[in-house]
Amino acid sequence: MQFGDVFRYNELDYVFLVGVNEVIYAAKVLEIDLTKKLEMGTQAVCKDGKRAHLLSQSKIYCYVKLTTDEVKGRIAHIGLTEGKDDQAFDVDSIGCSLNSADLSAIKKEILDGPVDKNLKDGVRDIEITDEKELTVAK
Question: What ranges do the domains of the chain cover?
Answer without folding.
Answer: 5-136
